[in-house]
Design a protein that fits this description.
The protein has 314 residues and is α/β, with parallel strands linked by helices. 26% of the residues lie in helices and 24% in strands. It has a five-stranded mixed β-sheet, sandwiched between helices. A hairpin with a 4-residue loop joins strand 5 and strand 6. Helix 3 crosses helix 4 and helix 5 runs parallel beside helix 8. The structure holds flavin-adenine dinucleotide (FAD).
Length: 314
């Protein structure tokens, strides 16, 4: 939800027209009331047990129903594993134009110009989506702030009934296996402390957790660290993991392979700690520190002690 709220800010940059929010799930009345106070013009709610857990076919049907009700010409979604699944299916169904994982979006006349990273972040692509057919964009949630103020009056909330076909019900939900229930979701984190193979063990990652908890952030990892079993796959950042763009990314003992950069180079401030001055991570870092992470990370943690309880980012 926090990254979806940021879509409202992106939408305000793209239109003077009405902005409608679509909420899909089960037992989501209070969520709808919260969203109605964010400054949107209308809220469409699809609230049924069939939508309790994400399944691409029912959710596609639900968003289609909202598109038809609202007469929408532009759909914005945050870049998440859900939108990676949903947006292309929706675009194919509606014969729509689509650009995924956008870093910036802006209006140029009637067209929407977007910047998105391509070929494992080796280059940035600039794409223009002309007005005409439906346009669907997924945007990195942390690329835009959440709306600052709450509305004086709530937007109208409209329940939508969605009829699912037998085909829509083909995928059956079985079970969710939770992991790291106490840890912050990487996609929503403003601060990420990430570690690589050089951490050498799962236990050693505790120094990164100590710092992340102190700063109110989450812990990420390279694929090498994940493959070595130091961290779960859900923490992997990169081409084949999570794509993140936090306010602050602290890369500890990470070489900076192109596949890792593909997942984090959109971060606002990047701090790199590495013993090797020639490590490619320094090429994207805002601040670089040639040092041993086992010495440096505890020092930063100690220096941040006075921040306990206070926000790090203003
Ligand atoms: C198809 C494909 C997809 C991939 N997808 C991903 C992905 O999604 N995410 C990802 O991360 N990788 C991905 N990779 C792997 C990627 O190519 C790299 O192998 C990986 O990112 C390297 O991880 P690393 O930086 O932890 O390890 P290494 O390359 O081993 O680098 C370790 C770094 O730590 C430094 N170091 C060592 N000791 C210390 C110390 N004590 N203090 C400070 N620094 C120290 C070293 O100087 C070095 O720079 C993918 C590869 C392929 C082929």
């Amino acid at each position: 939800m926090p990254s979806s709220l940021c879509m409202l800010t992106a939408a305000r940059d793209l239109t003077d027209g009405d902005i409608h929010a679509v909420i899909i799930g089960h037992d989501i009345g209070s969520l709808a009331e919260q969203v109605a106070m964010t400054g949107v013009d209308a809220v469409h709610v699809i609230d049924h047990v069939d939508f309790e857990h994400y399944r691409v076919l029912p959710y596609t049907r639900a968003v289609e129903s909202a598109i038809d009700t609202a007469g929408a010409s532009l759909i914005l979604m945050a870049t998440t594993s859900m939108s990676r699944d949903l947006a292309p299916r929706l675009a194919a169904r509606r014969d729509a134009m689509m650009a995924t994982d956008c870093l910036t979006v802006e209006l140029q006349g009637d067209a929407i110009a977007v910047t998105r990273s391509m070929y494992a972040a080796k280059c940035l692509g600039e794409i223009s989506l002309p007005v005409g057919t439906l346009r669907i964009l997924s945007i990195r949630g942390t690329a835009y702030p959440a709306p600052a103020s709450s509305a004086a009056t709530p937007a109208p909330i409209t329940p939508l009934d969605v009829t699912l076909s037998d085909t829509d019900q083909h995928i059956v939900f079985r079970e969710i296996v939770p992991s790291d229930e106490d840890e912050q979701n990487l996609a929503d984190a403003d601060i990420i402390v990430s570690g690589g193979r050089s951490l050498e063990s799962e236990e050693n990652f505790s120094i990164l957790y100590d710092l992340a908890h102190r700063l109110g952030g989450a812990v990420g990892a390279t694929r090498a660290a994940v493959d070595a079993g130091y961290q779960p796959q859900s923490h992997q950042v990169g081409l084949t993991g999570n794509v993140v763009a936090p306010q602050l990314y602290i890369a500890c003992g990470i070489d900076g392979a192109i596949q890792h950069l593909a997942g984090m180079r959109g971060s606002k401030v990047i701090v790199a700690i590495n013993t090797k001055a020639a490590a490619p991570i320094f090429g994207v870092a805002t601040y670089g520190c040639v040092a041993d992470l086992f010495e440096m990370v505890p020092l930063i943690n100690e220096a941040c002690q006075s921040l306990d309880g206070k926000p790090v980012l203003q």
